[in-house]
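Work Package 3 (structural annotation) set out to generate three-dimensional models for the target panel prioritized at the project kickoff. During this period the team completed the workflow that converts sequence records into discrete structure tokens, so that structures can be stored uniformly alongside our sequence database. As a representative example, we reproduce one entry of 80 residues exactly as it appears in the project archive.
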Amino acid sequence: MFVGTGSIANAAMAADKPCGYSESEGSAWYNHCTSDGSKIWIKIDVVAGLDSERCVNPGTTKLGPAWSTRGAWYDRLCNR
């Protein structure tokens, strides 16, 4: 049976960070923990500027430097 390395990599990365928003290594992260493979829109609270949103895949997504982000949270499912 063949197991794709992408799934293994996502599982390993997901284990590094808690679900949702976190900060470590000077960076802000969002870990979308799911078992259904869904993509979601997250809202990102930006320190000096307009807040933004991003469609993220399951697993860990680097949002940028921790100093520029106050938080991020689930908003809705992506339609793509």
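The helical segments are 5-16.
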